[in-house]
Amino acid sequence: MRLLHTADWHIGQYFFGYDRKEEHKFFFEWLKKTIREYNADALLVAGDVFDSPNPSAESQKIYFRFLREVSLGNPNLQIIITAGNHDSAARLEAPGPLLEDMNIRIKGIIRKNEDGLIDYQNLFVPLSKDNQINGWCIAVPYLRQGDYPNAESYSKGVKEMYDNLYNELLKVKEPHVPIIIMGHLQATGSEVSENDRSERTIIGGLECISPEVFDRKDIVYTALGHLHKAQRVSGRENVRYSGSPLPMSFAEKNYKQGINLIEIEKDELKQISRIDFEPPVKLISLPKTPKPLDEVLSEISQLPNGEVHSDSPYLELKVLITEPEPSMRNQIEEALKGKSVRLTSAVPYKLKHNKESKAITYEELRTINPMEMAEDVFLSRFGNEMPDSMKSLLQNVIEEVNR
């Protein structure tokens, strides 16, 4: 069998207000070609199909058009999709009965029986080829509170969930038939960018899951979603994140996008390889380190001229602020006229000062002179003393208030 592992599509994401639908369409065209080129038997999508639990009609149209076209072009392709934390589990799974005729299985809801017990077998999907079961997939969506067995912590509850799934599958599968695990979680030992809020807000402080839970007999590969950087987990070759096909923030601009190819032969893992994807839109950060506005404007002048279109690069500017500059935005916009880039943000960086701060009481706070406080704030933000002209204006305001 040949399996392709992808995740974290985030269809419908707006990048600093810019619609990314053309980027997603470009990726899906590439993915369709790749599936045909490698003659894949199954496509595994490990969560975060959409960027929002309530995706737009346009986002859903892109998604369903891809599923229809890839199924028609590859009649023997099996597709397994799980819900991520950005997805609505119920909404994603709702069209399941219709999509089953296209050999597509979607797992979003953790179902329970009449006794309130988890229906583990509902998450089992046989991997079939030539009318024969050549493997089993345990397709686990993002687990929310109440989805997993009662435990003293999230990590222990999720571990017990996977343990129970594995033990239940052993009751129905034939010996030596390989197992594929799918999950949408943060595994211990995985790498997250320090500056990437889009990843750090996903788990929301809940504990990471130890990859040891996947170290079981017959589990040949674990396809994870959630983290946007493609990576192995804790040195395990067969426990991997595929990463997102598009960078979700400037913190991810140096990530390598693509999907994973898993080849299974004679019931054993033969090879895992990476298939690279080149996103159609570049992310540019100028300068490499924050510089004063004049130098930033000089670097902008070196950008290529041309019209702005759907594949023009996204631009982030890093401006070192040493004093208030009310016209900064206007100067930047003027400099960008005729440049074939799309400005996302002009991030101000401030010089730090070494003045030691200390905690004070409420009574001490009442004795502080407003002018002194303003001067201290100005110094902390801009690294130098407040100009006399500004002090004079502020003093007039203070006197007006105290009248």
What does this 3D model show about the protein?
- The chain has 403 residues and is an alpha/beta fold.
- It folds into three domains: 2-276, Purple Acid Phosphatase, chain A, domain 2; 283-349; 362-402, no CATH class.
- It has eleven helices and 17 strands.
- A six-stranded mixed sheet has the order 6-5-4-1-13-14. It has a six-stranded mixed sheet with strand order 7-8-9-10-12-11, covered by helices on one side.
- The longest helix is centred in the N-terminal third of the chain and has 17 residues, at 21-37.
- It starts with a strand and ends with a helix.
Output the keywords.
403 residues; alpha/beta; Purple Acid Phosphatase, chain A, domain 2; 3 domains; six-stranded mixed beta sheet; 11 helices; 26% strand
